[in-house]
Amino acid sequence: MSKKESKPTVKIIPLGGLHEIGKNTCIFEYEDEMILLDAGIGFPSDDMHGVNIVLPDMTYVRENSHKIKGAIVTHGHEDHIGGIAYHLKQFDIPVIHGPRLAIALLQDKIEEAGVSDRTKLKTVVPRDIVRIGKSFFVEFIRNTHSIADSFTVAIHTPIGVIIHTGDFKVDHTPVDGEFYDFHRLAEHGEKGVLCLLSDSTNAEVPGFTPSERSVYPNLDRIMGQAEGRLMITTFASSVHRINMILELAQKHNRVVSVLGRSMLNVIAHARKLGYINCPDRLFEPIKAVRNLPDEKVLILMTGSQGETLAATTRIAKGEHRQVKIKSGDTVVFSANPIPGNTLAVVDVIDRLMMQGAKVVYGRHHGIHVSGHGAQEDQKLMLGLTKPKFFVPVHGQYRMLVAHSKTAKSMGVPEENMVIINNGDVIELTADSIGIGGQVPSGIQLVDRAGIVHENVMQERQQLAEDGVITVAAAVDWEGKLLAKPEIHLRGVVTSVERSLLRELTTRTIERTLSDRWAEFAHTFDGELEVDWTGLRTEIETALQRLIRRELNIFPLVVFLSQTPEQPLVKASSRRRRRSTAQIAS
Questions:
Q1: Is residue 584 pLDDT above 60, yes or no?
Q2: Bridge partners for 121 per DSSP
Q3: Beta carbons of 119 and 128 less than 8 angstroms apart
Q4: 216-225 and 239-251 helices cross at what angle (nearest 10)?
Q5: Buried b / exposed e across 309-319, counting CB within 10 Å, b at 16+?
Q6: How far apart are CA 146 and CA 436, in angstroms?
Q7: Which of 233, 237, 287, 403 has its CA 20 to 30 A from that of 190?
Q8: What is the pLDDT at residue 149?
Q9: Under 8 Å between Cβ of 468 and 450
């Protein structure tokens, strides 16, 4: 088919959020224009040693940055906006549109990262329509979720309307009184929705997800029964939950002290924007509440997921400078563990209980509800929008499959659905949907210092599993050992005697120097130049083979070498020898 005869096509390319929970990031592309919908982070697994956050591989976006016309964010959760500040260090985004709370949180992030000059932030309100480039008109439709100020979006394209639900549930009694705009969804459904991309997180859960308001009476009861200090941990971004906790604190005459930077930040922005309403006198710093009667104190803190540095975890480990657990304390976990965090959360609960605290946790207490719709919520979305094509998003593979079955039961033909993975390119026309290839879709790991490259992660994994052996030796300018090497073992278990290991190591280094010295030492214009870096790598490789063969273990092996500061000079030739590089660890 010639280019003139080819049908207009919108490409939809998710880079995160598929076959996983988190780092939700999606591209919409038409001809030479591209927009981003959300750009979140994921959280590291147990084997990602030292990693703080996980980002999607943005190679495709970076290589096509000239096409970027703007971005939209659906709400302010970290798995939807947390990656933007990192991405702005690699490419500009002309404009980012989003709800007031999300934009306020994002403003802090990009200013802290020093990239606020690389984009323009614009806030939207329900039913706003913004134009991005020539090809996209994005309409923001109020939805209900576990964070205030959340949106579903209708993306008007040259081939039809595409609706992306964002994260959503159907809450008929929202805490903030902001109802899901079903009327607008139904209007789009009547006019015709080309494609629906819908949140699949609770696709395996039957029924409706309960209202956030259903948590209120259970928290009320627990607060009324608590006799001593009350400590509550929840997601910092759960503005509705926090608002209810603050309401109940006033009802039960408790002063609130907030622990955790993210919690303080969200509460400050939510109060400024009117999503949390409470008097200033409700809050006191942690130092001040220590002088109050225990029954008058409520500590609201981060750490519901067992995060290492969060307030709840540090208190559980006895490492918090200002708060120590004592008998009579009640600690409430108003959150369920995210998949992968269960062991960390259970460890924190155990530690708190061993110190004498009464810990309230678990689904049976009714102190947490999901922010994601279950099967009946998803059916309502499908029934209102009546999409021609359907793509389940935001969930692990089994969730996507379950959601597609729900869509089929609602009348969407199986051939009109695709189950995709990160990096798949959906090619959508007015009368067809299919997968038209792939783009890079791996992950990028970040610790406090910056990007953690693959070779560094491999070394960290090796250190964690088998330890490290450091070999230090002095080598002269003739390629000879000046003394037997020093060997240091850290985290290594072996039955081999240290004297034998030292002897084997010495032989290996001497043999490598003897056999390979000529490859790394060359004389140019009377000067000796030695490739010490290459020689170090060669010796390390030989030592690794020795350790694995003789000891049957696989530690990280590091070879450190010291050479004389000045090379020897022969009087007959007066040739000066020098090194081109020092060996470094």
A1: no
A2: 96
A3: no
A4: 40
A5: ebbbbbbbeee
A6: 35
A7: 403
A8: 95
A9: no
Tally Cβ neighbours within 10 Å of residue 125: 11
Write out the E strands in 62-150: 68-72, 96-99, 121-124, 129-132, 136-142
pLDDT (tens digit, 9 = 90+) per residue, 295-336? 999 999 999 998 888 999 999 999 999 999 999 999 999 998
pLDDT in tens, 445-483: 766 656 656 666 666 666 666 677 788 888 877 778 777
Token digits of residue 157: 């394209």
- Using a CB cutoff of 8 Å and minimum separation of 24, what contacts does 525-530 make? 526/573, 526/575, 526/576, 527/575, 527/576, 527/577, 527/578, 528/477, 528/567, 528/575, 528/577, 528/578, 528/579, 529/578, 529/579, 529/580, 530/477, 530/579, 530/580, 530/581
pTM metric for this prediction? 0.81
- Enter the tokens of residue 19: 């076959």
Return d(Cα 28, Cα 65) in angstroms, integer.
Answer: 13
Summarised one tens digit per residue, pLDDT across range 212-238 is 999 999 999 999 999 999 999 999 999
Q: What is the pLDDT of residue 582?
A: 39
Beta strands in 234-376 (DSSP E): 255-259, 297-301, 330-333, 358-360
pLDDT at position 176 over 60: yes
According to DSSP, the residues that pair with 444 across neighbouring strands are: 55
Rounded to a whole number of angstroms, the distance between the first and last alpha carbons of the chain is: 59
Calculate mean pLDDT across residues 382-391: 98
pLDDT at residue 578 greater than cutoff 60: no
Percent of the chain's residues with pLDDT above 90: 67
Lowest mean pLDDT among 256-265, 501-510, 566-575: 566-575
Q: Which residue has the tokens 């590089």?
A: 581
Q: How far, in Å, CA of 145 to CA of 211, rounded?
A: 10
Residue 75 is which amino acid?
H
Q: Is the pLDDT of residue 162 over 70?
A: yes
Q: What is the dihedral of CA 94, 97, 103, 108, to 10 degrees?
A: -10
**DSSP states of 375-424 as a string?**
HHHHHHHHHHH-EEEEEEESB-HHHHHHHHHHHHHTT--GGGB----TTE
Note whether 425 and 29 are within 8 A (CB).
Answer: no
Say how many CA atoms lie within 13 Å of 111 toward its Cβ.
7
pLDDT band at 48 (very low <50, low <70, confident <90, very high): low
How many residues does this entry show for the chain? 585
Nearest to 78 by CA among 123, 39, 34: 39
Question: Residue 577 pLDDT more than 50?
Answer: no
Q: Which of 285, 281, 282 is nearest to 322 (CA)?
A: 285
Give the dihedral sign, CA 274/276/282/286.
negative
Whether 497 shows a pLDDT value over 80: the answer reads no
Dihedral sign, Cα of residue 75, residue 80, residue 81, residue 84: negative
- By the 10 Å C-beta count (0-12 exposed, 13-18 middle, 19+ buried), 389 is classed as buried
Tokens at residue 585, please? 């660890």
The C-alpha atoms of residue 153 and residue 12 are separated, in whole angstroms, by: 15
Cβ-contact 106, 87 below 8 angstroms: no
pLDDT tens, 407-435?
999 999 999 999 999 999 999 999 999 99
Cβ pair 472, 560 in contact under 8 A: yes
Q: CB–CB of 94/132 below 8 Å?
A: no
